[in-house]
Amino acid sequence: MATLELYSKGANVWVPDPDAVWVSAQLLQDYRSGEKHLLLQLSNGNEVHYPVGSPSDLPPLGNPDILEGENDLTALSFLHEPAVLHNLRVRFLDYSSIYTYCGIVLVAINPYDQLPIYGEEVIDAYSGQDMADMEPHIFSVAEEAYRTMIRSGKNQSIIISGESGSGKTVSAKFTMRYFAVVGGAAQQTSVEERVLASNPIMESIGNAKTTRNDNSSRFGKYIEIGFGRKGDIIGANMRTYLLEKSRVVFQASTERNYHIFYQLCASRELPEMRSLKLDAPENFRYTNQGGEMQIPGTDDLSDLERTRNAFTILGVQPDQQMELFRILSAVLHLGNVNIQASGRSSDREDRSLAVFSKLLGVEGSQMAHWLCHRRFAVGGEMLVKPMTGQQAVEARDALAKHIYGQLFAWTVQRLNSALRAQQGRTKSFVGVLDIYGFETFERNSFEQFCINYANEKLQQQFNRHVFHLEQEEYVREELAWSRIEFSDNQQCIDLIEGQLGMFDLLDEECRMPKGSDESWVRKLYDQHLNSKPHPHFRKPRMSNSAFIVLHFADTVQYECDGFLDKNRDTVFEELINILKASFQVRCFSFFFHLSFHFFCTSIHPKHNFPAHCSFFWASQFRQSLQMLMETLNSTTPHYVRCIKPNDLKEPFLFDPKRTVQQLRACGVLETIRISAAGYPSRWTYEEFFSRYRILLRGPQSQDQAQASCRQALPQLIPDPDQYCFGKTKVFFRAGQVALLERLRAERLRVAAVIIQSQVRGWLARIRYTRILWATLTIQRYSRGALARRLALILRYTRAALVIQKTYRMMVVRQLFFMIRHATVTIQAFTRGMLERRRYRLLVAERAAVLLQATVRGWLARQAYRRVRAAVVFMQCCIRRKAARRQLLKLKSEARSVERYRELNKGMECSQLLKLTALAWPCPLSATASLSVCASDIRVDSALSLAPGLPASVLFLCVRQADCSGDQARARSLCSAAVTAMKAALKKHVSDIDMAALWLKNICLFHDLLTQHSPKQAGSAFIYFLLPALLESETIQGLSGSAVKLAVSRKRAGSDPRTVGGEAPTMASVLRELGALHTALTQQALPKTLMEQAFHQLTYLICASAFNSLLLRKDMCSWSRGLQIRYNVSVLEEWLRGRGLQAGGAVATLEPLIQAVQLLQVGKKTEADAQGIVRTCSALSSQQIVKILTLYTPHSDLDERVTLNFIRSVQGLLKGRSNSQPSQLLMDVRRVFPVIFLYSPPPVLSAEQLVIPDSLKISFLRKA
């Protein structure tokens, strides 16, 4: 019970409600001990009087607002049902978060919608991350199981349970997909593909449509995924439990049979399926009883194609698949065999019986006879007696269920054979248990009884495991603890499986020759009501054919009709013998050997009833369940509880009644109760000191946090039983954190009042000073205005006198200037006329002289040209005659020169190669030797070589082979050289210097051959960079004073992980990047390639950090955004300082920059929303809404983002263009294309190369 002082005016409490289960209310007055009523105001504004008989009747208190939307329910201050329900509702409806932790349990609410949170980018984001650092997700549980298995070598189990339609199958599929991705085989085998291919097969033959779920698993399965020593998947194994065989012959209204039957009917027009004589599902009795032939949004024909492809992947040949389909089709035709009231098959239905007999290769007459007759042993003689019509129908349905059950078992065995580990012995495994949750219907029968019994066993194992984890935590912290009492359901389990329990009495009644359901119920009444009354067994008042069991989750009434028949699961031996004689179905050799071994025995010597099962179904199920429990107890379990939020299958619709019912049934509330019985609130001393330092007295220092906490807590909480000090944490009882929050709020309120009084006095003094200053200022300005007015009048008077004087002077000057201008103008015109006359005479004289000079020069040039042309013609004639004589002489000498060149052919090429290439002494062995040499160069030797030496040697060899004319050898050498360099690059990908060396050689080899080879090495810095970029506190003290409640606390039950060495910082990251840049520079890598390499690296950094930011709620705060922005700016400055921004390395950081800016801007007004939409141009709408949803205040000065603001932003984002990517997370596997710009290398010759002996390439020699 919480402290009574917390029930004060303004406190929030929860009161029961018939519709919403719990509603929030606020206290309007303080509660005093002894009062009989509480005055409350409900959330709708109504005031009510809540009756309080005693302090134990007080309503549950609400948690502080800062804890609203917590991703771990055990972190809540008050642990009770309404707090759990409200937190799940807030996360599901307001934050669209379907996953929530509850200690070691992951609560998954089915959204009935497709969410973009399961892509490969999400898998990459969760891979290698700690469970406590990330937002709740099914991938987080899978990662925890996988890493724990790798680290400790112990087997793991993931137990997924829930009602039908709650999403168990989907959760199991995503878990297996996660293992297939992170545990990929080293040799890229098809093991992961085969593991995933088992899902569509098991869904087709084991899933069906029910009233609650369109794809309900009608069986339980436990899949063991085996891993090798390197953590890669090497095999798998599947175990199934309690297949609902009765669905084969009967379906309730609006339900369907198993999917495979409708898939076969939909494919009846395919050529290979025509021999099966199938028809529409409306025409088969086994598929038309529910009235639902089609599921909206599904295509049975395409589903069958997917099932057949899965069979092919698992190695089932097409002929074997057709045998399976033939058996399934025979089951459908068997259901159409009409049985008359006399126990004989009708002639009208001979066609169905004939098709059934033909498909299975049995005699139709024998099958018709033994469907309507049974054999008895009387006095050592065998008698044949006809059965009634009802008995014959039951025999037909029993045969159909038996065939389908054995076909299901054969399929599981075949899948296990295909999934069995082939590479070696499995080191460890992770088991995924997809099992039915607790079920209760209006009419409950044998199947519900077995299902609820299995849930009783699983709940007991769950309770004990949770209790064990609590004890481990207390022992690890060296607490003095007392045993926690929790509800153990061992009595209910003993009622079912104990000595003379319900299963024993059921098996005993099945062995009786005239046993019946009524007699079995009477034995239950005698044993558990009359003889030894059992607290978990009751009898209904109005029925003698039913019984009531008080399960841990609910009280269930079972109807006894059909218990004995379903437990016997009887199939007559004669029908089995007929099927064993079939010769057309090759898989029957195993099929009926298994069936006969388990289900048929010889006739009992003391009873005259036919041979039937001595190993009853309930006993089989109990033994298989016991084996499952032993397996689970030998592993480390991880729990996933799936919740169905509504029965209408509507997306994001929350029904509190259905949710609370499932929370009670799946054990989530039991986890809360066990946690609340001990110390549910756990803080490290540093967290407690940061949050409540204002309550501490004396000197305060972060280094003395533990001592300060130990000294201050006894004064804050007088009752020492309400808290306990551990080695690294301080533990609190339920409600004590809320008490501390109240004390902290009161201390802050008192401090605020003092600050307000001081501020108000300061403001009053400031106001008085301003009024006094304003008065003096007004006086000063008034006197100044009067003085300025007098001065203005004086200035106007003086100005008038000056204007008059100036005007008179201007008039006289204008007259003077006009007379002078007229005189000057007359003089100018006269002088100009005289000068123009003299100029005309001079021009005429000059033109005559120039004309004479031009004519004389033209005549002289004409004479010179005639003389020069005559001289040139004479020279040409003489030279042509000399040339003819020289040509005749050269023709006579041509024959001797051609012979000389023929005898010495090849000498010029040899001389050229001697200067520019290397000779090729051996035909083919040199190619392999050169490749091995390229890939096996030692690191120390390689780094001492001249830049580009290996590429130069390889190119000269290729060029020599090409010059020799051997094209095949040239192509072989070129291919071997490229392959060897790629292998060397992949071999040394983790070595920065060697990676830079081979990147340089690939680039140079490309330039020499003018070819393209875009292979690049990946980044090895991601896991090192992320903590430094997101968590490194370069700005010291920024987050020390703003620690959120329950920040960075490890979840209960998670394994403690020791961190080796110091946390990475931005300085260490820049050192690593500097080492990479130095290695690339030393190898003289071209600037364009270096820019592209850092462009790819910065994109990986940005994508990984951005995805981690979206998946970690503790990162979405103002202080953390400021810190990340500073770290990114440091990285930007480093890139710009080395001139790498031209290749786009800085531009790729824009999404991360805008994300952290979104954390820092205001998020309240409409203007803020418009600013966010304008600023975050590189983020998609989903990413912006996700960051706003995850934003968490880390101080009392900050507030959460309201839903109205988020909706306002969403409305503005709808009008934005759709150029942004639609996915939530960035694709960390994106690889930018590499562009090799061709730059002609210098002329290469063999004499320029200095080849050290350490390379061991003596097989090459200089020609």
Automatic annotation (TrEMBL):
Q: Where is the Myosin motor domain?
A: 68-745
Task: Please indicate which superkingdom the organism of origin belongs to.
Answer: Eukaryota
Name the Gene3D superfamilies for this protein. 1.10.10.820, 1.20.5.190, 1.20.58.530, 3.30.70.1590, Kinesin motor domain, Myosin VI head, motor domain, U50 subdomain
Which keywords does the record carry? Actin-binding, ATP-binding, Coiled coil, Motor protein, Myosin, Nucleotide-binding
- Report residue spans for region: Actin-binding: 625-647
- What are this entry's molecular-function GO terms? actin filament binding; ATP binding; microfilament motor activity
Supply one GO CC term from the record.
membrane
Check the record and name the PROSITE patterns matching this protein. Answer: DILUTE, IQ, MYOSIN_MOTOR
Any Pfam family: DIL
Q: Which residues form the Dilute domain?
A: 975-1215
Q: Which InterPro entries match?
A: Dilute_dom, IQ_motif_EF-hand-BS, Kinesin_motor_dom_sf, Myosin_head_motor_dom-like, MYSc_Myo5, P-loop_NTPase
GO process annotations (BP): actin filament organization
Question: For binding ATP, which residues are annotated in this chain's numbering?
Answer: G162, E163, S164, G165, S166, G167, K168, T169
* Family that this chain belongs to: Belongs to the TRAFAC class myosin-kinesin ATPase superfamily. Myosin family.
Annotated protein name in UniProt: Methyl-CpG binding domain protein 3b
Q: What is the lineage of its organism?
A: Eukaryota, Metazoa, Chordata, Craniata, Vertebrata
